[in-house]
Amino acid sequence: MTATLLERRIRWAGLLIAVGLLLQMLTLPLTHPLAFVGFIVLGCPLVAAGMLLFLYSLVSHDTP
Amino acid sequence: MAACRALLKRLPVMNTTPLILISFTAIAAVLGLLTALRPELTRARGGKIFAFMALCVLPALAMWAGVNEHLERSTSTQFCLSCHVMADFGKSLYVDDKSYIPAVHFQNHFVPTDRACFTCHTDYTLFGDYKAKWRGVHHVLVQYLGKIPKPEEIKLYTAYNNRECLHCHAGMRKYEEASSHHKNPEMLAKAATNQLSCISTGCHDTVHDVANLKDATFWTPKVNGK
Fold first, then answer.
1. Does B66 share its domain with B155?
2. B67 & B88 share domain
């Protein structure tokens, strides 16, 4: 695996996490069932996917 | 100093937890975005540590704190009554009639008024809170994607379990010594094992009764004694 691919994965991981956290942040001021579902169904999977992609990019990277 | 204390007392009490949490989530999002825009930072050792913090530690902490905050809020009366279909159930808490079980509990603060719905409608079991949340997610789906029932058509999924009543009432003197609870010597034992329902056996059977709210009179709570 090249460093470029690693960086591309880190870029995607960062984007997923940033979008997920942004969605979570938007739901936090609201006390409403839709905010709760938005947080759990949209925000959490995006952040979790970003974290997993980052961790996968680390373990799948061959050190030269 | 005394003037400062007096001023602080006059200020409204603000719940700072959401503000701190929003700020923390925003910082984590900005750091995640920064890593996404500059992935070449990870070539240096310091950049690797930064990326690990920005893409693993901080998002995990923000998510954990957010889940806790949302779960805590989802137990509030305001949260349950935010769906239009629940409005009549909220109204039933103010009925001026002692036979209405939820109204008596709410008006006399037998249950915390800010968590009134959750206190009686969670299962007091190991996964009771999570089951209640799962049912809540189903309610949201029905609210936005399904056919919303009329308030009087809303029923419990299963018969109300005495366990939820006895979570507070078991061992209470008023409950143990009430003459009506000793009409039959086995009454309390049967109630404890849910063989004799507190609600559906006709003793405490007026619950929300939203179908008859139009004929009810309502209690108006006094604000600051007025």
1. no
2. no
